[in-house]
Amino acid sequence: MMIYSRLWEGTIHFPALGDWANYVDYELDAVTLFEEDKSRPKKSPIVQRSVTVYGDGRIDRSPGVSATCARMAILHSDSRVRGNLKFTNHSMIRSVLEAEIVGFRSCRVEDFEACEVRVGGQAHLVAQSRLFSG
């Protein structure tokens, strides 16, 4: 497992321990743990398995579309995805999302190039909650 901590310099504070980290003007309250399948050839899809710890120790056990897009943007900013190279994001409960960059937008966020990502996979209903009864 690797802790993705590219934004931090120095000590990493884990939200599960009650600490908050700061990056520029943003408060960070989550840490994504992932491992990458390094046995694959360089030009094959990037395959990772991840879990996010947030809040006061809560676990997001399955990668969502937003998290997969964020991982793809980070991989792009690190020059790891070029052309039509795909990214496969596995969860700890064996769900899988596949992503690829399909274009770039003219808008820019701070000093970062914005990329358009297509994400696909299967969804399964595992629970249902009713917050308000009517």
TrEMBL record:
Coiled coil: none annotated. It comes from the Eukaryota. It is an enzyme of class 4 (lyase). It catalyses: trans-3-hydroxy-L-proline = 1-pyrroline-2-carboxylate + H2O. It holds the Pfam family Pro_racemase. GO terms for molecular function: trans-L-3-hydroxyproline dehydratase activity. Its EC number is 4.2.1.77. InterPro entries: Pro_racemase_fam. SUPFAM superfamilies: Diaminopimelate epimerase-like. PANTHER family: TRANS-3-HYDROXY-L-PROLINE DEHYDRATASE. Belongs to the proline racemase family. This is trans-L-3-hydroxyproline dehydratase. It comes from Aspergillus brasiliensis (strain CBS 101740 / IMI 381727 / IBT 21946).
